[in-house]
Structure formats: C-alpha cells, structure tokens
Design a protein that fits this description.
Blueprint (H helix, E strand, L loop, with lengths): L17 H9 L5 H7 L10 H12 L4 E10 L11 E9 L3 E7 L3 E8 L8 E9 L4 E10 L8 E8 L5 E9 L8 E17 L5 E20 L6 H4 L1 E16 L14 E18 L9 E18 L2 E16 L2 E14 L2 E14 L3 E3 L3 E15 L44 E12 L3 E2 L2 E15 L10 E13 L7 E11 L3 E11 L20
Antiparallel strand pairs: 1-2, 3-4, 4-5, 5-6, 6-7, 7-8, 8-9, 9-10, 10-11, 11-12, 12-13, 13-14, 14-15, 15-16, 16-18, 17-18, 18-19, 19-21, 20-21, 21-22, 22-23, 23-24
Protein name: Bacterial surface antigen (D15) domain-containing protein
Length: 539
C-alpha cells in the first residue's frame, strides 16, 4: 500500500487530503516480487506458523516498510484437492523512501540523495556531493546496495568515496548473513582499496598526518545445525554454528617507524574459525526506539569460542577468544548482556588482551497521564586492554564514533555509538568505562507525521592505562536534553536535536556547550547472531 493515508489494520481507510493523494501518486510501490522474495514459506508446502511469523518480521525489518501483516485462511473448497489448502495474504504499508540531503555554508556546499527503495525494488542508492570553496576540492560518496537477490538473502554493496583531503575508498561486499535462526548457511566475500590520511601521535603526542594505503580481502563461510529435534520455537531456533574466515590486508603505504614503532599498520594474513551455540527468538514490543509501531526485540543466548592464526611482521601469533551473551524480558524490564574476551599468543607470551562487557536495560513502558509514556534506558560499557602495542591505533577513546584504525573487512558498522554523544577529543587509553542513562518520553506531538519525543541524557566515562588505572583517572561527563525526531511516513535515520553540556573536553576547553543536530544511533538491540568469526572489538 502507498504510505500516506492508509492503514495496515483498516482496509477502508484511504488517503483523503490533496497532499496525501499527491504523495501517493509520486510514490513507487514496492514490487510484489520483492515481497515474495522475502517470504520463507513456499507454495504447495505444509503451512508453518513459525515461518509465517519469521517472514513477517523479515519484511518488517526492511527500512522501506512501515508495517507488515501476514494472515492465513482456508481456501474455499471448489475441488477435493483444496480441502487442505490455505490462502496466505500479505499486507504491507510502504514508507516514503526518497530523502534529499542539503547543507550550505560560506565555505562549502553539500548535496545528496538517498533512495532506500529504488524503483520499488528494495535496492538502496545513495549519492552525495560536497564542494569546499576554500580548498577548491570536491568530495563524492556513491553506494548501491542490493539487499536480497532472488529469495537467497544474498546482499551486495558497491561503494566509492573520495574525500576533501584526496583520500578515497573503493569497496564491494557480497554477503549472506545468518539473517534468521532458520538460516542454514551463510558467507561473504569483501574487497576494498583505501587511502586514508590519519593524524597519529608519537610518545610526545606530536601530531603526524600519515598516509595509510592498503587493500583488504575478506572471505568467510558458516553453517548452522539445529541442535534439538523438537518442534517448539525454542528447539527450532537453537543452533550449533561453525564458521571460518580468511582475511588478507596488504599495505602499500605505512607510517614511519617513529610514529608506529611496533609496525601496527602493516600487511597481515589472518585465519579464523569459530564454533558456538546460539538460541535466537524475537519478542514484539512498542515504544522503544520508534513511536507506536511493532518492534522486534531479540532475546536469546550465545556461547561461542573463536581461534585463529595470524602472520604479521614476520611473526606468527595464535588467537583465542570467547563470547557469552544473554537477553530476555523480566517483570522489571528488559536486560541483555554481552561479555567477550580474547588475546593473542606469541611464543607463549600474551599480547593485545581484550575484555569487553556491555549491557542494555530498559524499563517497562510507563504511562504518564492519558497521552504521554516513558522508559528509562541504562547502558554500561567496559573495555579493558593489556599488553597493547605502542600506537594510537591500539588505544580506546571516548569519542562517539570511536576509530576504525586497525579494523579491516566489512565490520565498520559495529563501530557506531561507542563513546559519549557529541564528544570529540584526542585522549586515549587502554581501559574504558562508560555509563549512559537516558530518560525517553513518547509524546502525542505530531505534525505531518513528524514525532518530537523529548529526552534527558547523562553520560559518565573514564579512561585508564598501565600508568593510571581507571579508578584514579579523570571523570568526563556529558549532560544533554533535546528531541528525538522521527517520521511515521518517511524513511530516514532518526534525527536528534539536543543541547549538551560537557564540563571537561580536552582540546576544546572546560564548560563546553554544544547544540548537536545529527542522525543518531539509538541504544540499539544486542543481536544474538553468532556468525562471521572476528576478534573482540577494542574500541
């Protein structure tokens, strides 16, 4: 159905205003074959209620879909062969998927277009152009994504980016993840070529802008086996998963020895394998990260181990790591936890030890009067490192988006929302503690589909290293208030407008006030997928 004026539950509701009718005329509906390719059920096969439920979730998770509903009913028996037949009806409400981007200043112009349902095919197209007048340079960012090729759930992305400092990225990723607990095989092929210019620091903290030029080749494959033979949802969604990975990074240009004495930025070959048990289910809820629509909350358990062999700088190292995760609803709210530990061994000596812990908690929905609702969110994070290399690339930071230095392959999406929102400073450590509290209100305010939901946020963080442990380090705070802005009909990232106060931000002074306006990553759900082998993220 077109996005404006229609309802997934009310078949009689139609677009009435001129604006709604015009928007629907301009909208290209999602093609029927796109929706068929998302279904896990097949014609002339026994009806499986769990696959119906999972198909509905997979349709709903598409960014260009606002709501989905799948129902089954008995077929009218015109012939004896139809006695055991059912009709499956899929109702889908689209979102408006074309979003322009534009910003202007005295020094630069930025223009772009994002189409998340290109010609109704479900493909994602992004094109962005930036012109900097003072530098006389142009920047480009173009990406095209096919999410699901002919019901295989094999997705592919081709991207090219050139930046104002003449660095660039060229990459392609073809991958099928364990998108569902019913998925039996997964794998991917990724390749990129990058030229980056990053500011690295010596021991005296003198800034150096070095060129990092490298090619990456990343291949992996995995298989999932159902552990139990029962027919219950828990039995059918508990799997033993095995996977293997080959990663090759070939550096063409590296920093000099003064900046990178341990040759952290150098070519490597890394072989990884993992085995684990994952139990994944999804509970439906509302008023978490969206307003009123169904949200699928992952619950489950993961137990997994990872081993590997790395060849780098003419040194052989073994890797060992493990992960335990659990999440579920309780009488007092929802809680999910994730604990990971990993380390390398070189000649029986431990190197680059990492311990990471994260928890996500939110309360049950609280009604405030007849129209308002609220939840309290709590998110603690701890990253602990020992025997780290002497380079800025092997350090943690409190900056919101962390750093992708030393991270290779198609894993960059995992590096969002790693620090204090809006915090930017060149301070680093080997240990990090971060606690974020957010009080989120859900208001009745609605203008042309735009929702303004107020929030209050407080973050406290500390960095430590071998010379100064976290318990003795400085405390960094951030206090914020603002609005989470979303839209019921349009496909765009959630937008945040907030006022933040930072008592201390090294390099920017004390008592710093900032007005932040940016696309925001929410607290997020911890998925219980166990797939592509990797080391513990140290960010």
């Amino acid at each position: 159905m077109d996005p404006f004026g229609n309802s997934i539950n009310d078949t009689l509701k139609k677009a009435e205003s001129w604006v709604e009718r015009t928007g629907n005329r301009l909208h290209v509906r999602t093609r029927e074959w796109v929706l068929r390719d998302l279904l896990l059920i097949e014609e002339n096969k026994p009806l499986d209620s769990l696959l119906i439920k999972e198909s509905e979730r997979l349709i709903r998770r598409q960014t260009y879909i606002r709501s989905a509903q799948i129902t089954a009913s008995h077929v009218r028996q015109d012939t004896p062969s139809q006695a055991d037949s059912v009709d499956v009806k899929v109702r889908v409400l689209d979102s408006w998927s074309v979003i322009p981007e534009a910003s202007f200043s005295t020094s630069s112009t930025r223009l772009g277009l994002r189409e998340r349902n290109f010609l109704g095919t479900g493909h994602d197209l992004r094109a962005l152009f930036t012109r900097h007048f003072d530098l006389g340079e142009n920047a480009y960012d173009v990406r095209y994504t096919v999410r699901n090729f002919k019901n295989t759930y094999i997705g592919s992305t081709v991207g090219y980016s050139s930046y104002l400092d003449n660095s660039f990225y060229k990459g392609i990723n073809i991958e099928r993840v364990f998108y569902s607990p019913f998925t039996r095989w997964a794998g991917g092929v990724y390749a990129d070529q990058q030229l980056r210019k990053d500011s690295l620091a010596t021991e005296a903290l003198e800034l150096h802008y070095d060129r990092l030029r490298y090619n990456t080749y990343d291949l992996w494959a995995g298989h999932s086996f159902q552990v139990f033979k029962g027919d219950s949802e828990n039995d059918r969604t508990t799997n033993l998963i095995t996977s293997a990975r080959y990663l090759r990074v070939n550096f063409k240009e590296s920093p000099n020895i003064e900046v990178d004495p341990d040759r952290f930025f150098s070519s490597e070959t890394f072989l990884l394998g993992s085995i684990g048990i994952a139990s994944r289910q999804f509970e439906q809820d509302r008023y978490i990260f969206n307003y009123g629509i169904i949200e699928d909350v992952p619950v489950g358990t993961v137990y997994g181990i990872t081993g590997g062999y790395q060849r780098k700088n003419h040194r052989d190292r073994l890797y060992m790591g493990g992960r335990v995760a659990y999440g579920n609803y309780f009488n007092w709210g929802f809680l999910s936890t994730n604990i990971e530990a990993g380390l390398f061994f070189h000649k029986k000596e431990p190197e680059q030890t990492t311990l990471a812990f994260q928890a996500n908690y939110f309360t049950n929905l609280i009604d405030i009067g007849p129209y308002w609702k609220m939840r309290q969110f709590i998110k603690p994070q701890v990253v602990w490192g020992e025997n780290r290399f002497n380079t800025i690339g092997d350090r943690v930071t409190l900056n919101e988006h962390g750093s992708i230095l030393g991270v290779y392959g198609a894993d960059f999406h995992e590096l969002n929302n790693m620090g204090i929102p809006g915090f930017r400073s060149r301070i680093f450590g080997t240990q990090k503690f971060l606690l974020t509290l957010q009080t989120q209100f859900y208001s009745p305010w609605n203008m042309w589909g735009f929702r303004l939901n107020p929030f209050l946020k407080y973050s406290v963080a500390m960095l430590g290293d071998n010379d100064q442990r976290i318990s003795n380090s400085r405390v960094y705070n951030a206090i914020g208030a603002g609005f989470i802005i979303s839209n019921d009909y349009l496909v765009f990232d959630v937008f945040q407008l907030s006022f933040s106060f930072y008592p201390r931000m090294p390099g920017n002074g004390n008592d710093v006030f900032r007005i932040n306006a940016f696309n925001t990553a929410d607290f997020g759900f911890q998925d219980f997928e166990f797939g592509k082998p990797r080391t513990v993220l140290y960010q």
